[in-house]
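User: structure tokens for this one?
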Amino acid sequence: MAVLIDTPVWPWRGRKWSHLVSDVSYDELHAFVEAELGIPRRAFQGDHYDVPEDLYDVAVAAGAQPVECRELLSRLLAAGLRVRRPRGRAAG
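Assistant:
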């Protein structure tokens, strides 16, 4: 299993968030999130799930591998699983 999670440093709506990805397949990522975190599939962000800081330790205990954000992005790109946002479109 190659589910990766970065440190919860990304602020949004008064909380800090992590990114959770797989460098193997989206199916692996969806299965992990459903079985271990209970985050609804509708929360999938095209190539990752945003995980609130209160679920970070749960994800790691369930087998997500903690990595720095640059490594997470590098491995996602190398796996061909990175979805790039069209230029000029704001994150949302």
